[in-house]
Amino acid sequence: MMLERSLKGDDRVFYFSEAKECDFVIQRGDQIEELVQVCWELEETNIEREVEGILTASAVTDCRTCKIITFNQQRTIQRGELRIEVLPIWRL
To answer: So what's the pLDDT on residue 92?
Structure first.
């Protein structure tokens, strides 16, 4: 629902699946604008999977705006030059 409200008329949303997966790829016109992963909570058992999905999608699409949406966590993850914002759903 939150994602849907942020979309404009010609925006498109895709699922990215190659070597890794990214939940939402948001395209505005011809440009990939944002990569979004969604999980309940980032923990030792899933953080690498969630981050690697964004890193792979970013490398393929050249998108640098990346978020991981969680239930209640907020932080920034830096991987090389890529900055991933971790935000709780209520902040959107």
So the answer is: 81
Query: How far apart, in whole angstroms, are the C-alpha atoms of residue 67 and residue 36?
Result: 5
**Amino acid found at 38:** V
How does DSSP classify residue 57?
H
The residues facing 53 across adjacent strands are none
Average pLDDT over residues 64-80: 97
Tokens 């999608």, located at residue: 57
> What is the number of residues in the chain?
92
Q: Cα 58 to the chain's mean position, in Å?
A: 9
Q: What percent of the chain stands above pLDDT 90?
A: 76
Domain boundaries, the chain: 9-91
CB 68 within 8 A of CB 50: yes
Q: 14 — phi, psi (to 5°)?
A: -125, 160
Contacts of 14 (CB under 8 A, 6+ apart): 24, 25, 27
pLDDT for the residue numbered 1: 43
